[in-house]
Amino acid sequence: MGINSTGVAYDFGQLGSAFLNHEDNLLTAPEGMAIVAITFVTETELDVLSAKDSTNFPSIGAAANSTGTYTRTVNGASSANKVIFDEENTVSGNDKIEIGDELYITSTGVSLGTVTALDPDGDNTKEISRSTTTTMGDGITITFIKPNLIGYRGVGGQAITASDTFAAGLTIYGRWDTVSLNDAGGSLIAYFGE
Questions:
Q1: 3-state secondary structure string, the chain?
Q2: Which of 1, 7, 75, 82 is the most exposed place for a label (fewest CB within 10 A)?
């Protein structure tokens, strides 16, 4: 009896792999496939790393899982655990603030707790209260995440730069179209998957 496991199909390179150790080469995944893992043979910097979907997988110049579900802009400095936004709380669809939503500073990914009440004083529909008392200044963009929902984005992810160094022996996983080296001494093995 066979085992139905994607680990068996992907973990050992059964769908193909390629070695890259020259900075002038651009390695592209075969048609209908993606680079699903990269193992760095030596300490390596990348010049190109293009994700199939840069909102889910990091790449050179694009930050994956950095946008959250929706954002709001702080209107005036926050006081204690209350925050007033420029935008309304009760926008329809995925932009609607709900109790339990998590708050993060968009630029840094720092957690600001969770929403505990909407319009806590009954006098401002743009105001919320939250579980922490971290001070926020006017104009700060706050990213919200709806916990435990599939298909939404995280926050705090950063773009990879051409000066980031990957250690020898490190393996990264994702879904990329292309990869190339930024330095003559680097080398890697790219593994393909569907």
A1: CCCCCHHHHHCCCCCCEEEECCCCCEEECCCCCEEEEEEECCCEEEEEEEECCCCCCCEECECCCCCCCEEEEECCCCECCEEEECCCCCCCHHHCCCCCCEEEECCCCCEEEEEEEECCCCCCCCEEEECCCCCCCCCCEEEEECCCCCCCCCCCCCCECCCCEECCCCEEEEEEEEEEECCCCCCEEEEEEC
A2: 1
